[in-house]
């Protein structure tokens, strides 16, 4: 599955899985990828995933969208391409199974790099501009929130999920109680509140 790694000043702040046909990037809170910086337009760019490949399109942004240092309007993305939006750098990665991976897994399942299977789960946004949006918990670690304000991490474990506070002055609140850096096991129906946004943990 294609993904993009976002960084600023050399520090990685977000990993973005490209799972939809259309993934929007911009400053407004309703974008799929919110980049809260004045150099970024409200609706800055969009990533299209098609049968022909993955394309980046600039949405007539004020400061432009760059791929490998070159301003673009619409550009097919290649693995390791670097997209620049304001001060943010976003590296595009196209993941593919390694040749022979299936045979290796069959021969030595105990050495598989994949984490143990966990129940399917997602976080549903209950308040704010993104109300109703569902964030699937498919990665080993899924981060939520805004860097510098409030960031929490939900970790996928062998038999469930845990959550902990990562960054920011505003603490994560779980079922009305603030929690810290120590992981807390999540239960189906738990309600999280992060920087004023309420979310519910839903597990199949």
From TrEMBL:
InterPro entries: Cell_Proc_Reg/RNA_Proc, FHA_dom, SMAD_FHA_dom_sf. SMART domains: FHA. Residues 23-72 form the FHA domain. This is FHA domain-containing protein.
């Amino acid at each position: 599955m294609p993904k993009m790694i976002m960084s600023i000043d050399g520090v990685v702040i977000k990993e973005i899985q490209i799972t939809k046909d259309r993934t929007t990037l911009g400053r407004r809170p309703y974008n799929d990828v919110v980049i809260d910086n004045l150099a970024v337009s409200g609706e800055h760019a969009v990533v299209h995933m098609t049968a022909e490949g993955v394309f980046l399109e600039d949405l007539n942004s004020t400061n432009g969208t760059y791929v490998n240092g070159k301003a673009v309007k619409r550009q097919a993305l290649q693995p390791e391409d670097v997209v620049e939006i304001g001060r943010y750098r976003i590296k595009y990665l196209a993941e593919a199974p390694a040749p022979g991976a299936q045979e290796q897994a069959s021969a030595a399942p105990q050495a598989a790099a994949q984490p143990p299977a966990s129940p399917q789960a997602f976080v549903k946004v209950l308040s704010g501009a993104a109300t109703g949006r569902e964030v699937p918990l498919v990665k080993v670690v899924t981060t939520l929130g805004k860097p510098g304000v409030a960031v929490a991490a939900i970790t996928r474990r062998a038999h469930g999920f845990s959550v902990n506070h990562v960054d920011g002055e505003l603490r994560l609140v779980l079922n009305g109680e603030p929690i810290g850096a120590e992981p807390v096991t999540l239960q189906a129906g738990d309600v999280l509140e992060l920087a004023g946004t309420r979310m519910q943990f839903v597990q199949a």
